[in-house]
Amino acid sequence: MLRLIKLELQKLWLNRTSKILIFISFILPFTVLILSSIKINFFGFFTLELGELGIFNFPIIWHITTFFASYFKLFFAIVVVSMIGNEYSNKTLKQNLIDGLSKKEFILSKFYTIVFFSLVATILIGVATFFIGLYYSSYTEVSIIFRETSFLLAYFVKLVGFFSLCLFLGMLLKRSAFALAFLFILYIFEWLVFWGAYEVFGTTETAWKVKNFLPLESMYKLIDQPMQRVVMTKYPDKIDLTYDYGVYWYEILIVIVWIGVFTFLSYRLLKKRDL
């Protein structure tokens, strides 16, 4: 495994664009550090400091940081589809196979790299969140501090799932631009499935249940939006804002299944394709 990861990292390191995108994908999520220190002066009447609003308190901070950090995954997604596109355009895929790398090892090298970068990103976000929380949070009990670290697991699975989908699209279409464009087509398709399910079953609740099994929606559902929760902490009497934002094992399982499906399909495509 380490040999395959090292091989892939060497390829990425030699590509200037990939190095820049990887750097951006790791740095941008840390804008939460900047947000935590922002002070907004309203014409001298009062100063609003985001860190003092309670949104960086434990345990809610795990929810907030992982949710917003996950939106920056698109930058590394470009790296993933570029990994495949460059293999075809530069003929390195064929050369690797000639040099003794099996097709299975080729796919595994990509998948292991995806897991490696997802793990590093998760650790960095976890460390940043921990220290921001220690600085701003009014709660210092260990049980409260680590209560919702399950969002880190959801964040990790979400990254691996999304990048595995990008790996499959890269293998399917061989071109980075086409693969990324197909993500938008998939997004539209999932909404069409939603409306189709609504027409068949007649209720939005059932339609949402169907949509939650689809790739993009199942990944999104791992970390629900935290905005309503933030409002609820300030206005606990707002019963109408109550919603279920927890991380559940079956939601993680659905995405893990998709990870397996996309990795297997990537391997099958490579195995059947005439290089």
TrEMBL record:
Keyword Magnesium in record: no
Lineage of the organism: Bacteria, Pseudomonadati, Bacteroidota, Flavobacteriia, Flavobacteriales
Membrane-spanning parts: 20-40, 60-84, 111-137, 149-170, 177-198, 247-270
Entry's Gene Ontology molecular function annotations: ABC-type transporter activity
Keyword list, A-Z: Membrane, Transmembrane, Transmembrane helix
Organism: Mangrovimonas spongiae
Identification of the protein by name: ABC transporter permease
GO cellular component terms, A-Z: plasma membrane
Record carries keyword Transmembrane helix: yes
